[in-house]
Design goal:
Shape: globular
Number of strands: 0
Protein name: Oligosaccharide flippase family protein
Subcellular location: Cell membrane
Order of helices and strands: HHHHHHHHHHHHHHHHHHH
Helix content: over 70%
Number of helices: 19
Radius of gyration: 23 Å
Distance between the termini: 24 Å
InterPro entries: Poly_Biosynth_Transport (IPR050833), Polysacc_synth (IPR002797)
Organism: Guopingia tenuis
GO cellular component, one term: plasma membrane
């Protein structure tokens, strides 16, 4: 009961904050496009991806230690928690210094990655601000993970979104008044440091034992287990970063910085929605970790299937909306000169769907500790992604880069990740998983086809009113199709019961409080 209540509270705070954050980020991007232009937009996307590659220095430390924390948190073992936090703090301070070192080493060569005829003043200063923004996180933020491990991520979420919304507001004013990109970035760095310090102070107040001087350390056997998981997570991190972080680098170096800037608007939309939906999975991660510590394999598997169905519904519905609304929205938002062709949009949307459908497996993998068994899979995907993207980019341009990402996912992650999770986590076969995946994919494809056909027939021109009509069709048609096909299935029934159970308990508690007052 407590586990479900914490999950729902985390989800509510995460979604509410993310929606406000989305509105502010779009306002900020609109001002950015109109004041700084497509070249700086491309630089922003390129440097963001380079720093994503730098975050490889993490080496999976965070995931490995958070996984190790679920059991002592459930058992209230403060000595073990202190030992883990000591290890975590030392590791993250080292990582922060490594990122600073890599940034300084790369600064003299950064201009060679920017393919443009225009001169960009202070390019190296801009890059160093990106480095400072990323590195600062590692010196303060690690204590916030203890709040998350206690299933109270909504506290961290409040801090993150409050400071982010404040940052966007100040940045918008600064851009409108000064058109100065360096000053805009400096505000982001300062806000990030403030955000991490506030989170650290809250963690110190909630768990005062972590700020006391102590020499708690882990036993050699416990350290070995964490180091083994970290060794496996190095491969996961490397593969994930290469897959997610190199597209913009390849586009900038081989296609052009302007094209990178145009794509960055599509990336903003997919990343925004993906982050919004991932808040659901982040919010339930600690509860799933607690479930894996306390419940049987059968219970875990039933919950997994219910969440898998929810995963499909969220990302399937979002995929339909992207396919139907992507270009109409971009055109109304910033103009037709920022549009990509429909074939390019198809590959962007397909990659969004396939990445999104992995979320349930990633959540259970990280909370069950199934790291070592599949450690080479992300690296295989990364190599395929880079090779195919570089091979196709000169002839197909943007489309070739995104085909590379799709090929790498289909050939590895799409089927190997669930296979390994089922074999080593649930101790069972995964034929049922793939049958469901096929059903979910076909349902999403059918929904995309029917919804776009209906929208193009009824709304042939693109205006604000017809966009609202398209949005209404997107809300009704795919959800009607999904309800019609899956309403009576076991997984849908279980997910409904889980959600309704939590809502009923919340309603009863409110009634008791009203009666008591």
């Amino acid at each position: 009961m407590e586990r479900s209540r914490n999950s729902m509270r985390n989800i509510a705070f995460a979604l509410g904050g993310q929606i406000l954050n989305i509105l502010m980020s779009f306002a900020m991007r609109t001002v950015f496009v109109n004041t700084l232009g497509e070249v700086y937009l491309g630089v922003n996307g390129l440097f963001t991806n380079i720093l994503m590659v730098f975050s490889l220095a993490d080496l999976g430390v965070g995931t490995a230690i958070i996984y190790a924390m679920y059991k002592p948190v459930a058992e209230h073992d403060t000595h073990k928690i202190q030992a883990l936090m000591n290890m975590y703090g030392r590791a993250y301070r080292t990582i922060g210094m490594v990122i600073i070192g890599m940034g300084l080493a790369m600064t003299p060569f950064i201009r060679y990655l920017v393919k443009t005829d225009q001169d960009i003043p202070d390019l190296q200063v801009i890059f160093l601000l990106f480095v400072a923004n990323t590195a600062s996180t590692y010196f303060f933020a690690y204590k916030g993970t203890l709040i998350t491990a206690h299933q109270k991520n909504y506290i961290v979420t409040n801090v993150v979104y409050s400071t982010s919304i404040l940052c966007y507001g100040v940045q918008i004013v600064v851009m409108l008044l000064t058109h100065n990109y360096i000053l805009t970035l400096s505000i982001q760095v300062g806000t990030n440091i403030l955000q991490n310090i506030i989170t650290m102070l809250i963690a110190n107040k909630m768990y005062p034992y972590i700020k006391k001087r102590n020499n708690e350390s882990l036993r050699r056997r416990e350290k070995r287990g964490i180091y083994r998981n970290m060794g496996a997570l190095v491969f996961y991190r490397t593969g994930q970063v290469i897959i997610n972080g190199t597209d913009n680098i390849v586009i900038s170096a081989m296609v052009g910085i302007v094209e990178s800037g145009i794509y960055s608007n599509y990336l903003l939309l997919t990343t925004t929605i993906k982050n919004l939906l991932q808040q659901v999975f982040h919010a339930i991660t600690a509860s799933v970790g607690n479930l894996n510590v306390e419940e049987s394999n059968e219970t875990k598997y039933n919950v997994y299937n219910a969440i898998y169905f929810g995963n499909f519904w969220l990302f399937g519905f979002s995929t339909v909306c992207f396919w139907v609304l992507f270009n109409p929205f971009i055109e109304l938002w910033i103009g037709s000169e920022w549009l990509l062709s429909l074939p390019v949009v198809f590959w962007i949307v397909l990659n969004f769907y396939m990445t999104g459908m992995r979320q349930v497996n990633i959540t259970f993998r990280d909370t069950m500790g199934v790291f070592r068994e599949g450690k080479y899979v992300p690296m295989m995907a990364a190599i395929i992604n880079v090779v195919v993207s570089i091979w196709l980019a000169p002839t197909l341009g943007l489309e070739g880069v995104f085909i590379g990402t799709a090929v790498s996912t289909v050939s590895t992650l799409l089927w190997l990740e669930p296979l390994i999770l089922h074999r080593y986590g649930f101790k069972r076969g995964c034929a049922e998983y793939f049958v469901k995946y096929a059903a979910y994919f076909l349902t999403t494809a059918l929904s995309c086809w029917v919804t776009k056909l209906a929208c193009d027939a009824v709304f042939p021109v693109n205006t604000i009113l017809t966009f609202i009509g398209r949005l209404f069709f997107c809300l009704v048609i795919p959800n009607a199709i999904m309800l019609g096909i899956f309403w009576k299935t076991k997984d849908c029934h279980m997910l409904r019961n889980m959600v309704m159970g939590v809502l009923k308990r919340r309603s009863h508690r409110k009634k008791r409080r009203v009666t008591a007052s």
